[in-house]
Amino acid sequence: MDALEIQKRMHINRWYLLWKNQCKMRGEEYDLTLEEFYNLWTKDDRWLERGRQKDNLCMSRIDWEKPWTLSNIKIVTRLEMLRTKRPRNKGVGEQ
Q1: Burial of 50 (0-12, 13-18, 19+ CB in 10 A)
Q2: N or C: which end of the chain has fewer CB within 10 A?
Q3: Comparing C-alpha atoms, which of 21, 6, 26, 12 is closest to residue 89?
Q4: What is the DSSP letter of 65?
Q5: pTM of full prediction above 0.85
Q6: Beta strand pairing status for 68-69 and 30-31?
Q7: What is the pLDDT of residue 1?
Q8: pLDDT computed for residue 93 by the predictor
Q9: Chain centroid to CA 23: how far?
Q10: Quick check: 84 and 59 in contact, CB under 8 A?
Q11: Could you list the mean pLDDT of each consecutive 10-residue stretch along the chain, which spans 95 residues?
Q12: Cα angle 41, 43, 46; round to 5
């Protein structure tokens, strides 16, 4: 494994752990392994287009009433995700 591949795996592993923690904090169910997450983001080098700008890519649910699963996830631009009507979950400890 070359240095670029190691760096990519480290970044994606970190994103996966952050995503899982955000799901827990928001009280959202998820069933996505690290390997599935990795494959989703490395397809066509999508991971290089992640970011916080409106044209960057992010992961979104197809049906916001269902858990985060491989069959209920799509990769979209942040702008498209923000335009999606979705319920607002209260985080852990919020009332």
Answers
A1: middle
A2: C
A3: 26
A4: T
A5: no
A6: parallel
A7: 82
A8: 53
A9: 10
A10: no
A11: 90 96 96 96 93 95 94 96 75 52
A12: 55
